[in-house]
Amino acid sequence: MPTETREFQAEVKKLLDLMIHSLYSNKDVFLRELISNASDALDRRRFAGLTQADLLPTEELGIRLVADPEARTLCIEDNGIGMTRDELIENLGTIARSGTLEFLRNQESAKGDSPDLIGQFGVGFYASFMVADRVVVESRKAGEEKACTWSTDGSGEYELEDSQLDAAGTRITLHLKDVDIDGGIKDYTDEWELKNIVKRFSDFVSYPVRLTVNKKEEEEKEGEDEAAAALDDSPINSMKAIWTRPASEVSDEEYKEFYTHITHDHQEPLLHLATALEGTFEARALLYIPGLAPFDLYHREMAHRGIQLYVRRVFIMEECSDLMPDYLRFVKGVVDSEDLSLNVSREMLQQDRQIQAIRKHLVKKVLQSLSDLRKQDEEKYLGFWAQFGPVLKEGLLLFEEKKDRILDLVYSASTRDDSKLTALDDYVERMPEDQEAIYYMTGTSRDVLASSPHLEAFKEKGVEVLLLTDPVDEVWLQQMPPEYKEKRFQSVGKGEIDLQDESEKDEAETKEEEEAFKDLIQAIGSAVQNEVKEVRLSSRLKQSPSCLVLEDGDLSPQLEAMLRQAGQEVPDHKPILELNPNHAIMKKLQGLFEANGTDPRISNYASLLFGQAVLAEGGQLTDPAAFTQKLSELMAEAI
Ligand code: ADP
Longest C-alpha distance within the chain, in Å? Predict the structure, then answer.
């Protein structure tokens, strides 16, 4: 293969530039990133060796740091899976993760520091450029003879050339920048410094990390002590799997570092939980709920990044999707089983009874700890809810899920207090005894919902209504009207609403009213017959003249739009136009109608009443021009 020079993908250039000029104070993290990559590569080699034993090295799997104070270089070597020339191009010349790409594209103007970037993504390999001005990667893939060297000074291009490595693995050589204590660049060839950083960030890495510091010439002559020191080649990390240690012995700092190690997320996790499954199957798990939602929470490929599977401390696979349902895909962590075979494959996992048992246990624990958090620190819980609430509610769509335990965690805006959310169970708690249903309204924005005509009667009678604005709300409430604490859910925009109240008109009165308006309603109905399936008098309107309602089983307009967008066929259905018999417009229209039943203005007013109802629920008019023209005509006439 020829030596070649290639350009970095535009986003990588941007990222490199951010790293090179980074003001991010904690530059030590570069080492964690490189050790963590090495550890991943070792995992992959060990895993490949399970099915193809000749891919395993004869010597122990591990990581070695070689520091050379004189040359000012630091090498990170591993005998992991290695990379081919193509993989070097693919992995180090481009960025694949969609969230990172989007973020970088939006960062056009970013200059200098970007702790956000490091926090959100852990920029991995590229963090090297915070401390090095030249990086050389030599790699040989397990099972291949040839090695390849990739190198760059971090400007727009990198070089590739064939090279030699005695064994498979990767050696990364950093040509270090000058020490700059104010700028956060320490002496990364110093033994004590390196030991400290490894202890702090990578102690639990499950492979030995060893350190060699090349001595300066004059030091070499210094005699026996040195020779003894050189013989001590024990690992500088403890390698102790953090989830096997009693929780009381693990500090919060260690939990946080482990979280960063497995997720590459540098922010504080919201909470961690350590749990053990005992009995027929034995397993331990250490799970985390992140503090912030990742950028790609709703991307398909994100669906399962969360859980790593170990068997008796041996890493088996990343992204073990069978251990966590989709609606908890934000949960991160490790599961270590005592009983599974080391040779499990993804296909086998799906039917494995043990995996099902572990998953069941984990789901219960996660929901339980969220519920505890809610009780102990509601504010913190609401922070979680803001990040992950819509994802959690996806669980309400699952047929096999126990819905109540998710509903116990649901919060929603409500008409009771516009400044804060209410828990569903608090709503039910507050319900007066004779209130039969949990009233709710769905839509795209809280403000539009809050001023909807549908709520007028509810407001007047002081009946609280939940205002749900996540797209998923439409779906779970539609899918199968569930019950919660023996109360059904009732949309205020659907069906007939009957808010019992003594001060209400009695039936006879209602009948009389209906009789009086009967012919007018019919005339209005024929004017808007293309738009609505029925016109009727309303019991839910107090101030507004009109609103649209649906029948109980009908899809809401938002859900219809969502389904259409997803390419599904949705049968056309028309809403019902409800009119307020007590509104001045209706009374005057009645007068107009009595004077002349065929007055052409009646049909114009009918269209306007319909248009108003559409606008009031945040909908769009099919013919806004016709609407404004009619409105202008009638205004001119009235003035
Ligand atoms: P991340 O580790 O988050 O995927 P990086 O930029 O750190 O992102 O690394 C990009 C990819 O390069 C890794 O996913 C991995 O495939 C490859 N890689 C990095 N370091 C090594 C290594 N020491 N051995 C083998 N592959 C590596």
Answer: 119
